[in-house]
Amino acid sequence: xxxxxxxxxxxxxxxxxxxxxxxxxxxxxxxxxxxxxxxxxxxxxxxxxxxxxxxxxxxxxxxxxxxxxxxxxxxxxxxxxxxxxxxxxxxxxxxxxxxxxxxxxxxxxxxxxxxxxxxxxxxxxxxxxxxxxxxxxxxxxxxxxxxxxxxxxxxxxxxxxxxxxxxxxxxxxxxxxxxxxxxxxxxxxxxxxxxxxxxxxxxxxxxxxxxxxxxxxxxxxxxxxxxxxxxxxxxxxxxxxxxxxxxxxxxxxxxxxxxxxxxxxxxxxxxxxxxxxxxxxxxxxxxxxxxxxxxxxxxxxxxxxxxxx
Length: 309
What we know:
two-stranded antiparallel sheet, 14 helices, 4 strands, single chain, two-stranded antiparallel ribbon, mainly alpha, 55% helix
């Protein structure tokens, strides 16, 4: 069964766009023979991550002194910034699983800057590498070591929101990831700037780790009801942490499905958000895999386990 015959949009129409070309695993890729070069530790990144996590741990000690409004604000920033990755960089720009209007693309671009996980262009490019060369030396979201330069990226280059954010990414990160989350509680309800700043560090660190869980825990622990030939798995903890991205065996089997699972909104805040945007007229053309195609794949390549969700 081809990707086109599996795929339909909400409303029953098969989209004309060749979305599978973005997602299809490249079976022709060959690992280099001979001994692999030793992995090198990037000590600058190690140091930055240590400093960040120490700051976040200190921020957790300040939680009891934060006001309820500050805690609520942190939760809102967590979901908003996470959506910039899940609904934006991932489902919209990496996989083109739905279409978004200009206002929604701008909103998701702002949210993505708050998440501070590389600009949209780089994130989407490397994620396409991840799908196309999954579990090979070309994979770990690294276009220098991998195959990012060989992918078709004209759709990203043609998106003015993506390229604008890429051009002003550093400035947007300073404003959205650090200044806004810190200044809003300080200015509006008198929170201590010290508490507000370290609360922003906690939020940023949690979103970062939630994303990392998708490509670590969800590749190691869980069942594989759709395809036992790939590493990604269904992991409910990751689904909860990453607001819907833990149905990873399904997603790697059907990467062009906007919901990333067969259960729609269940346990999937990102899918709920996209559905809401469609209801408001800000998004359209959600791509979905037919239930018949899912069932056929389960019987053909699944592990026979009860599917999560």
